[in-house]
Amino acid sequence: MSVTLVSRRKAETAFAAPCLLTRIRAGFPSPAEDYMDRKIDLNEYLIKHPAATFYCWTEGESMQGIGIFDGDLLIVDRAEKARHGDVVLASLDGEMTCKILDIHHRRLLAAHEDFPPIPIPEGASFEIEGTVISSVRLFRDRPR
């Protein structure tokens, strides 16, 4: 899965929208609640380290198994130390990719059976650009 950098700028404005107090069923309908919970600012909710956070667009199918699809927007935090099993944005020999970090076997893993693991050879140019915190998927077209 390749990625396209969108921005490294901190969000300059806050936008807090109302949030329903209860979770919404994705199966059978349930009675609606009459009131909203506190407002949620997505910048506050999703971005822990604003100065170290950036966005990028995804391209490809290799991460579909964990819910990252072609065209999704990733929120990536450079300040979060990547751990075994984290989804990371990595550069391997100059190629940027989004994969699951397998520290124990020194490799990057796709989340799709058609894509083999990518070994990280000794001496290779390898850098973790950041840990993927979240992805955003639009259900209606929006301009990029």
From TrEMBL:
NCBIfam families: PRK10276.1 (NF007621). Residues 21-133 form the Peptidase S24/S26A/S26B/S26C domain. This is Peptidase S24/S26A/S26B/S26C domain-containing protein. The lineage of its organism: Bacteria, Pseudomonadati, Pseudomonadota, Gammaproteobacteria, Oceanospirillales. It comes from Halomonas heilongjiangensis. Pfam families: Peptidase_S24 (PF00717). Gene3D superfamilies: Umud Fragment, subunit A. InterPro entries: LexA-like, LexA/Signal_pep-like_sf, LexA_repressor, Peptidase_S24_S26A/B/C.
